[in-house]
Design goal:
The chain contains 16 helices and 21 strands. With about 500 residues, it is of the alpha/beta class. The protein folds into 3 domains: about 160 residues, Polyamine Oxidase, Chain A, domain 2 (Alpha-Beta Complex), CATH 3.90.660.20; about 210 residues, 3-Layer(bba) Sandwich (FAD/NAD(P)-binding domain), CATH 3.50.50; about 80 residues, Guanine Nucleotide Dissociation Inhibitor, domain 1 (Orthogonal Bundle), CATH 1.10.405. The strands form 6 sheets. Strands 2, 3, 10, 11, 12, 13 and 21 form a 7-stranded mixed β-sheet that branches. A 6-stranded mixed β-sheet has the order 1-19-15-18-17-16, with helices on both faces. Strand 4 and strand 5 form a beta hairpin. Helix 3 packs across helix 10 and helix 4 packs across helix 15. The structure holds flavin-adenine dinucleotide. Flavin-adenine dinucleotide binds next to helix 3, strand 11 and helix 15.
Length: about 500
């Protein structure tokens, strides 16, 4: 696409690259570090990252439990702990974290988390909230070399537009991987890279997984735990019917429902635009200091749930043992924008999630797929959400609006090359950028790193999706919160020792 044509399309950039710390500079007690060439976002984040000292005003509020982070993990923890005097603190002005929906003229689209499976903590919670289960019921196709191939890993393998030897290689690979007893060899497989299993087969197989992996669990084949990839392969190539559930705009529908419910019943306990800068355990309580509207405040709580990702958590909480900090720091996160193409005419409604190996994006979903056939539904727009996971070294591309627009333009360019029918311009292109939203399912992360990273302190529980695994999942975040809520209840009921609590159930 030429620069001049691009100028006619409206590009909208949203989201913050620096997930941890958009705080007012004036609240920083010592002078901030030198401004970086990347601009303000980066500079402010570094203030927290570098252990900048903030004022600690005296305690002005008390709560039974403070929950830090209003993504699905923090919101569900608040929901499970409604009968207590809780305080939920979220740095963004909105709720939802990585599971967050936006709207274009009333039509909803996703900026992150896409779908759930039946019978998981996510769908159980959604059912409890009265949400209707909407089934995807459509195995994923692949769109490659101008050819659309249905149900990629089952019937699709006979139709992939590759030479016969490559198709045979795909089938041999699938058949061999299906024989592996993944559950029995969980630990061994989790500590091996998936590339060990793809090597020796056609390179197009790794290329396919180099899209599927980053989109689903943040890592390419060589960086992926073999356990995670094989479990996924056995699910998409096996006999089980597609049991995915989603809503328009994806799983942000759950956080929207949760936050609306909590804001109705407990608005005084829900504080957004509040950035926590320190969590300091005392003898019988914990002091949590946060910045909001140009002021610092300190709240005392008997228990804390940290529903923030570990790369932020370890910087905020005092007193974490060294080995545990090392485990928290070992977890890697990718930058991951989502680019929504908003068309004012029908362009594509053929499948829910279409894989496009070898492009600037990995796959795209039809935002309103599960309601498309509802009686009376007449959408004005066809919104396609393009998943655009980046590699860690590419994070800087999101730091500027221009860099983000460039990335979105590349997504549009590649999309328009896929099929002749796609050579139409969208009305608008919205890019939602996030700097570190998804932890990578690297070898050993699930069985070796996470179990060390999530061990609770005396009064601080470590929630978030990265306390569960094996992948970054909404259900994992909710499972961790369920466990955190049980832990808080025991603590508030007087259960004395962390050692007892440590022995409690693990979400993974
Ligand atoms: C593009 C994309 C696609 C995905 N697709 C799927 C999918 O299809 N299915 C699925 O199950 N999962 C998917 N995921 C993963 C899923 O979105 C996450 O696992 C889940 O949303 C994590 O929720 P969380 O509450 O644990 O963490 P987060 O969503 O990271 O929430 C943490 C919250 O803490 C806040 N915070 C951070 N620092 C502070 C601070 N100092 N003070 C106060 N608040 C703070 C953040 O603003 C954020 O709101 C996807 C993720 C992405 C990015």
């Amino acid at each position: 696409m030429t620069q001049s044509r691009r100028d006619f399309i409206k590009f909208v950039v949203a989201g913050s690259v620096v997930a941890g710390c958009p705080i007012d500079q004036t609240l920083v007690a010592a002078p901030p570090p030198e401004a970086s060439v990347h601009g303000e976002h980066n500079e402010i984040c570094h203030a927290v990252r570098d252990g900048q000292r903030f004022d600690r005003p005296p305690v002005s509020r008390r709560a039974d439990v403070v929950i830090v982070g209003g993504g699905v993990s923090g919101l569900s923890a608040a929901y499970f702990l409604q009968k207590y005097n809780f305080l939920l603190l979220e740095k963004e002005p909105h709720w939802g974290g990585n599971a967050y929906v936006e709207e274009f003229e009333g039509q909803v689209y996703g900026t992150g988390s896409a779908f759930e499976s039946m019978d998981t903590p996510g769908t159980h919670l959604a059912a409890e909230l009265g949400m209707k289960m909407l089934r995807v019921d459509d195995p994923d196709p692949t769109l490659v070399h101008g050819t659309w191939v249905a149900d990629t890993w089952r019937t699709g393998l006979d139709h992939l537009p590759y030479p016969p030897a490559v198709r045979r290689s795909f089938k041999a690979f699938r058949d061999s991987m299906m024989k592996i007893d993944v559950a029995a060899r969980k630990e061994e497989l989790d500590n091996q890279p998936f590339s060990k299993y793809t090597s020796g087969y056609a390179r197009q197989i790794s290329q396919w997984w180099d899209g599927y992996g980053p989109s689903n669990w943040g890592a390419k084949t060589k960086d992926t735990s073999a356990f995670v990839a094989l479990e996924s392969l056995q699910s998409i190539a096996g006999d089980r019917p597609d049991d995915r559930i989603t809503w328009p705009g994806g799983l942000g529908a759950i956080t929207k429902t949760l936050s609306e419910l909590l804001l109705r019943s407990r608005s005084e306990s829900m504080v957004s635009a509040a950035t926590v800068v320190a969590v300091e355990p005392q003898k019988d309580e914990v002091h949590i200091t946060y910045a909001r509207e140009g002021k610092m405040e300190t709240v005392a709580a008997r228990a804390v749930i940290m529903a923030t990702p570990k790369f932020i958590t370890w910087r905020l909480v005092a007193g974490i043992p060294e080995a545990q900090i090392a485990a928290m720091r070992k977890i890697r996160y990718i930058p991951y924008p989502v680019v929504n193409l908003i068309f004012d005419k029908p362009v594509y409604r053929r499948a829910y999630d279409t894989w496009c190996p070898g492009n600037a994006f990995t796959d795209f979903v039809v935002a309103d797929w599960t309601i498309r056939n509802e009686v009376g539904y007449k959408p004005k727009y066809n919104i396609l959400s393009c998943y655009t996971p980046l590699q860690e070294f590419e994070r800087g591309r999101l730091l500027t609006e221009e860099g983000s627009r460039e990335l979105a333009a590349n997504v549009l360019r590649d999309f328009q090359k896929l099929l002749p029918a796609f050579r139409t311009d969208p009305l608008e292109v919205h890019i939602y950028r996030r700097g570190h939203p998804m932890f990578m399912s690297t070898p050993g992360n699930y069985t070796a790193t996470i179990p060390v990273a999530r061990v609770p302190l005396e009064r601080v529980f470590f929630g978030n999706a990265d306390s569960a695994g094996p992948e970054s999942l909404t259900s994992g975040a909710i499972a961790a919160s369920r466990m955190g809520a049980d832990w808080v209840e025991k603590l508030l009921a007087g259960a004395p020792r962390a050692s007892v609590l440590r022995a409690s159930r693990c979400p993974a």
